[in-house]
Amino acid sequence: MDDAAPLGATEIGWLGGGNRGAVMAGLAMLHARGLLAPGVGRIRRIGSLPRDAEPLERALYAALYGSLGPRELASQKRVRRALRDVRRSLVERGLVRATSRRVLIPVLLVALPPALLARLVALNAVDVTEGLVAVVVLVGIAVWFLPRRTVAGAQALAAARVRYGDLVERSQLEPVEVGLAVALFGTPALLALMPRFAADGGLLDGGRSSIQLDSRLDSSRWGTNTDYFWN
Length: 231
Hints:
single chain, mainly alpha, 2 domains, two-stranded antiparallel ribbon, elongated, disordered N terminus, disordered C terminus
């Protein structure tokens, strides 16, 4: 847990669920502070932001002009800028891979070396078996770079879920603890801690679906591929 201990709730949210996880953690904390009011699939701000709010919280609050849905809010320039800062911080800590490593390195390892090896085999410079082994090794290395989180990031997230696994069972939580619970356990935590706000404010499937409220934590957190809605 050493790597994740100094992280904020929104940073842990990004580590677990990308942009969506970070935004939901920020909105959960703002709601716990009494600063958000839900509408029909939308939210609006009320009250005054405290000084100890996280940077992404501040960006979300500042970008809430009128009433917006969570996805609309996440697309605002200042929010996107804050999300990039969150990601950059995680990359600097070695918990998330830089985009260049996730995309460019796998492409180079998968595309260029096999083509070169095929040419060498054709010229009888290397044995076919050796060439196939080299291709398999390079593809394996490329696959290792594909996950968003590094090994350290995955370990830190797993340790945090163990350390804070009882958050949703506590009777009273501080706003930061609410954010941590949502960051770590996603939709099930929203349903357990703020079911009506999550449903009315559009935090569940963009507010378009009718979802049965359930406080169980054994369902999926944010789904398997949610970032395409939030990038």
